[in-house]
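Why does residue order matter? Because the sequence determines the fold. Keep that principle in mind as you read this record.
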Amino acid sequence: MTITTKDQALLEKFIVDNEELEELESKLAQFNIFEAIGVVRQEIRHSNFLAFLLNPSQNHRLDDIFLKRFLKRVLLETDKPKDEEYANISAVDIDIADLKDAEVRREWQNIDILIQSPRHQLVCAIENKVDSGEHSNQLQRYREIVELEYSNYRKILIYLTPETDKVSDENWRIYTYSNVAEIIDNICNNYKSTIGTDVYTLINHYSILIKRHIMTDSEIAELCRKIYGKHKQALDLIFEHRPDLQLEMADNIIKLASQYITSKKIFLDRYSKKYLGFGSQEWRDKNLPLAFHFENGSAYLVIRLLICPYDNKNIRERIHQVSRDNPQIFKKSNWAEKWITIYQKEILNQKDYDDADVEKLMKKVQDFWENFIKDDFVKIENIIHENIDKLIISDISVETKA
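Structure:
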């Protein structure tokens, strides 16, 4: 896209004599440990650090101070769950408890943070959301897991989020990152001499990070809104020309797959930056409605083998039957009138994209691709080749034999 004279004037106005921008840059220029190591809105990194603070056994010199203060404030500041099983514990119970025996787990049964105190028969599950929301009824599933594994324990379920989001399961208490920052600030003020300069600096930097990047009502957030209000057109223009990670990934995947077009006799199609198709050249030569698709999402990458829409329903049915006859490589799939997924593998997920580094992402893609092209691709290609005559037999021939 060509930058016009008007566009250039907008950008110049945005850059020159922009006091709010200078103020914002000044605030962001202040050194922050977490920004330096790339921990800004990466959910997994926030969960790691919170698990560190919540664990009395870690070397932050707080014992169970942060854990108890966090749980007490959650119980005091959130609405009680309707289910008595999740409302039968109070802040007083936590205040008088010695929680130094508490064990903190990360990603146990996919729960972001799980805290258990065998001494007090207490368990707490924390689902942490920085940018994404809940999905696939995960809160209900996690609650059921906790109920099954800790049936005799008192339970606290916490949904940690930048804002007071709605949740699908009312047994989860909604708690915000602004409250976490307040707890950290309070501990910094009261325990600076106890925890030492190193830990004080670390947790203070974490509180600043939350205020800069997570809280929607922070000073920096307000400053950003003011700048956007004054310079909307210039910022929209900058945003329009921002780097596109999804597009970069698509370009790199095409380059990677292109190396195998001749040696492996595959065809390659690019439908968009989100969908890239390829398959055995034999499938195309024989008019088989069959193709692999890379689904290149903004924060995931999946490969699927699809039976594609096709006028000849019989050929689609025969391919589907071959896949069902070979469950060792194909996934179980139900019949569908359009697209039928008979093979699927996840290559990258949200956690991989937390770092959002194209080189790291593509290294994982390349490792997957090299294994896939030598293993699953060959197996699938051989199965289809062995059944090719059966797949493309004409309907007239079938009727004649009958």
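The chain is about 50% helix and 15% strand.
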